[in-house]
Amino acid sequence: MEHRALGRQGLTVSVQGLGCMGMSVFYGATDETESLATIDRALELGITLLDTAESYGPFANEQLLGQALAGRRDAAVLATKTGVEITDDGRLLDLNGRPEYVRRALERSLRHLGTDHVDLYYLHRIDPKVPIEETIGALAELVAEGKVRHIGVCEASAHTIRRAHAVHPLTAVQTEYSLFERDIENNGVLDTLRELQIGLVAYSPLGRGFLSGAITSPDDFAEDDWRRTDPRFQSENFDRNLDVVREVRRIASAKDVTPSQLALAWVQHQGAVAIPGTKRRRYLEENIAATEVTLSAEDLAAIEAVAPHGVVTGDRYAPEFMGTLNG
């Protein structure tokens, strides 16, 4: 497994990580036994970066990772997130970037994860009621205390990233990035990350599974799968986006790889660390094989021809899911 430096603060991770959210919430039925086996297999195959958040469950996903890493904490680079206020009994409230909440949430995450430190602690969403400098200042204090090794933000604008980085160096920014979602190429975020040498962690690198080629109908989803409300999976949007997936599949077939492997290889080629989410070993193994896929100039041109910026139809999220993007 290739490893890649995230930022310039000394954190090195596997070029592909594992998004663990779906093991506990949002993507239909869960199976703890299979999820634990999937984490075991990921570590065995060389993945080091495991990604979770206190809001995934809430708490259930952190607790799952705590169970998976019991007795072998040092085997993983553990990333979790705060910034969405949650009561101790698991009720989701509002965005909260106040220093006192960040500190309280971190202590709770440490208990759930069964560890004394988090390797990478993100602000999950930007709280517009709190200056980003105050929130990052609190994260910097946690770094000084040794409870957090590195910090990052998620879904932030270029302006906010600069403000945050000026308070304490950011190791990574996590944002959606895939052949279906390329806005960071045009809104200044990608250029800012490269200029400041901040790592890019790409979530949903398979377009929430669309780019796997395995989804052929909105009816493929379980009743409790939140993608049933995702605009990109609705009516005409679905049909148009499926046409793009068919073209990606055609290019992948010519290289004798799967659409997932082609899409992940493209994200990794851009310099990002991809964190595809899965809760099954068979998909994990397929995804990891993407780290062995090389893309020629001809491959990249063919991909660009069928999946240029803006090719996807439909908003990224239904409004109630997005939270706030701070300008």
From TrEMBL:
InterPro entries tied to this protein: Aldo-Keto_reductase, NAD(P)_OxRdtase_dom_sf, NADP_OxRdtase_dom
Coiled-coil residues: none
Keyword check for Oxidoreductase: yes
Gene3D superfamilies with a match to the protein in the record: NADP-dependent oxidoreductase domain
Transmembrane segments: none
Broad class of enzyme this protein falls into: oxidoreductase
Keyword Thylakoid: no
Entry keywords, A to Z: Oxidoreductase
Gene Ontology molecular function: oxidoreductase activity
The NADP-dependent oxidoreductase domain, residue ranges: 17-306
Top-level taxon of origin: Bacteria
SUPFAM superfamilies: NAD(P)-linked oxidoreductase
E.C. designation(s): 1.1.1.-
Protein name stated in the entry: Aldo/keto reductase
